[in-house]
Amino acid sequence: MSQATIEKGINAFKEQIDAPVAAFFSSCVSCGMCAEACLFYTETGDPKYTPIHKLEPLRRVWEQEYTLTGKIKKLFGLTEAVTDRMLSEWQELLYDSCTMCARCSMVCPVGNDIAYMVRKAREGMVASGNAPEGVRMASTRAVRIGSPMGVKLTSLQAQIRHIEADTGLTIPIDVEGAEYMALLSSMEIMNFPEYIGGLAKIFAHAGISWTLCSTAFEATNSGIQIGSSDIARELVQRVVDGAERLKVRAVISPECGHAYTAIRWEGPNLVGRRFTFKVIHILELLDQLRASGRIRTEGLERECMTFHDPCSLVRKGGVIESPRNLMNMVTENFVELEEHGKWGWCCGGGGGVSSNEEAAGLRHKAFRRKKEQLEASGADALVTACANCRLVMEEGFEGYRVEMPILGLTELVADHLVTEEGSGEPPEKR
Amino acid sequence: MANSKTLGESLRRHGVTRRGFLKFCSATASLMALPPTMVPAIAAALERAKRPSVIWLSFQECTGCTESLTRSHAPTVESLIFDHVSLDYHHTLQVASGEAAEAAREAAMHENQGGYLLVVDGSIPLADPGYSTIAGISNVDMLRETAAGAAAIIAVGTCAAFGGLPKADPNPTGAVPVSEIIRDKPIVNVSGCPPIPVVITGVLAHFLTFGALPELDRYGRPMVFYGQSIHDRCYRRPFYDKGLFAETFDDEGARKGWCLYKMGCKGPMTYNACATAKWNNGTGWPVEAGHGCLGCSEPDFWDAGGFYNALSIPTSDVTGTVVTGAVAGAALGAAAALLNRGTQGEAREKHATVTVDDLEKGV
């Protein structure tokens, strides 16, 4: 069994520093605007949570290895080496207090993509053994068992039996040549199985062939969260293999933010080639079906509802309009949060923070931002499209004693589908 | 000299119509960036205002400031207002002389104790009080004595405001501005060599209307007049933005009215209202006449380099330097990139694939 060492960590930093990183570090004007964009800073007021400061180890390696002044300083011993001790100190900054929500990247006046650099800095943290235990365990389970929460195929099959009994619909598994292969997040399987039921209803309604894959049902990618391309690649490869084995036209990313980042954006770069299938987020697909009239809904939710933008999906993924179109399709009183869309505030649990027990206290503090935002909106119910956000917010509500139901957008749409005589039969295509 | 007539009566006696008066009030309001709703308040206050007693002291100065204010062409409402303040003491303008003149000053000070306005032009010599005396009294003593009972002080002209020409290097008389001697009275610096007449009347109108002085900038100048640079308000600014400059006073650019920056115009560092208020009843102003701004309303403008030296300008062969620099930079950049690529490549070669077995530190 090999081990993580500081040398490996420094080497990973050196490997990760590319032209954008060099340009970003040389462009930073230390204006501190990223601090005000970060909920870990705004909710604690502690300047150590200033996003660019979280990158100090990476910046120092860049200066020492890639700049002339840094090399001279190093020669004369005027700059301190990055040590294992420094990295363990920075664990809190690079993991506990960063969800890679990229709000800081949005405000940076010189265009530095800070979240991109945090993702890269985590490579060095992993290689040097400085990733938090909770996140390491999640990655280990993801690779060994197939899911960060340890959900096995048998657990999924058990849930499927319940859902089939409830809905009277079949949940197809391993159907070769199906149009779509749906991925699921463990949280959906264990905490929000109504998502799977919703999918079944929608596809039956729209007359679309779909399938789950027994070897690649898990969408979440712990490798992206812990920040290891090697682990992320292995997990993405499983999905690619599964989709190619079943010869599907497209893979559907579920209501999970970073899963979309993993499969849609990082995926092809990780495996080093184009996918033979398309990747689409469930909300994008639903919005397409809505626009083409293939799904029809009836009735509107009366309650005042608002939408929480999952960062990976909306700000980083660009799926901004689809959730709004769908919200307006099924609710009559949809209100936006004051800062929404690409300016939305993170739930505080993305980027691996929710699987990191050490970060629980900080996460609770940071959640105050979301809580106050929701209270100010006057909404009665909250809709979102990310199982992780949903679970984090449910826990947050628990901690702050807020009573507000949280719904998944897909299941909400599924609840409003027009039911025709002989329900279960797909309606005629138009 | 001082009588109890109100300003309104005085103006009417001189044939200023009600309409003309209100026009002046509106102009004052807009000039001083006050809301239009203030116009009636200004009119009412000015109408009722007692003619304020003004004592004008002239120290080390050239009388240019007085000339600027009094020789400004046909009487306008603002000049009338200025004429009809109760100017109880002013070297250049008063009829009295000798002891009678000094007696007038003392009488005005006594009658209006704590309520008169003190206007000062000229700087005050501290090296030797003998450099400038009036009726045997040194400037600094007269200033201290007269300032003691003043409601406020208006330092007119750059000499009184910042020291001006007398203070220019090497400052043989040890000249200082009013603000370095008097520290316990509100002081408004109306700088300029000379200042614009309307600024004086604007400050007076503000004082009469609100009983207070207008908002001041960091040099004690009224923000409304000194809030923006000449450069930002200059009608030649579009040429600067396009990079079109006159190089000499008789070239094509000068004839076409291009920017005078390269000929030493100090507009970018000078804050004054010349570009908008203009001079000589709105006829024109220095830049419009074809000469760069001297920066006369800024502290130490005499010592700010030559009047015809541009604020900053490249002195060498720009194109050649840029080309050489670009070539050298590109070569250095390429070398650095190559070197850095080597560093990164080395790191890549050393990369050991991370598996879940490698996540923990060695003991």
Automatic annotation (TrEMBL), chain A:
Under the heading PROSITE patterns, the entry gives: 4FE4S_FER_1, 4FE4S_FER_2
Q: Where is the 4Fe-4S ferredoxin-type domain?
A: 89-120
What InterPro entries does the record tag this protein with? 4Fe4S_Fe-S-bd, 4Fe4S_Fe_S_CS, Cys_rich_dom, Helical_ferredxn
User: Keyword Acetylation, does the record have it?
Assistant: no
Superkingdom in the source lineage: Bacteria
Keyword Transmembrane among UniProt keywords = no
Listed A to Z, the keywords are: 4Fe-4S, Electron transport, Iron, Iron-sulfur, Metal-binding, Transport
- State one molecular function term (GO): metal ion binding
**Pfam families for this protein:** CCG, Fer4_8
Instruction: Report what the protein is called.
Output: Heterodisulfide reductase
Its source organism is: Candidatus Sedimenticola endophacoides
Recite the lineage of the species. Answer: Bacteria, Pseudomonadati, Pseudomonadota, Gammaproteobacteria, Chromatiales
Automatic annotation (TrEMBL), chain B:
Q: Name one GO biological process term.
A: anaerobic respiration
What residues bind [4Fe-4S] cluster 1, as annotated?
A: 62, 65, 159, 193
EC category name = oxidoreductase
Q: Name one GO molecular function term.
A: metal ion binding
Name the residues that bind [4Fe-4S] cluster 2: 231, 234, 259, 265
Q: Which cofactor does it need?
A: [3Fe-4S] cluster; [4Fe-4S] cluster
Entry keyword set: 3Fe-4S, 4Fe-4S, Iron, Iron-sulfur, Metal-binding, Oxidoreductase, Signal
Domain named NADH:ubiquinone oxidoreductase-like 20kDa subunit is located at 62-206
Name the PROSITE patterns for this protein. Answer: TAT (PS51318)
This protein's superkingdom? Bacteria
Q: Which GO terms describe its cellular component?
A: [Ni-Fe] hydrogenase complex; cell envelope; ferredoxin hydrogenase complex; membrane
Under InterPro entries, the record lists: Cytochrome-c3_hydrogenase_C, NADH_UbQ_OxRdtase-like_20kDa, NiFe-Hase_small_C_sf, NiFe_Hase_small_N_sf, NiFe_hydrogenase_ssu, TAT_signal, TAT_signal_bac_arc
- Give the family, as the similarity comment puts it: Belongs to the [NiFe]/[NiFeSe] hydrogenase small subunit family.
- Check the record and name the NCBIfam families matching this protein: hydA (TIGR00391), TAT_signal_seq (TIGR01409)
Protein's name according to its UniProt entry: hydrogenase (acceptor)
Q: Which organism is it from?
A: Candidatus Sedimenticola endophacoides
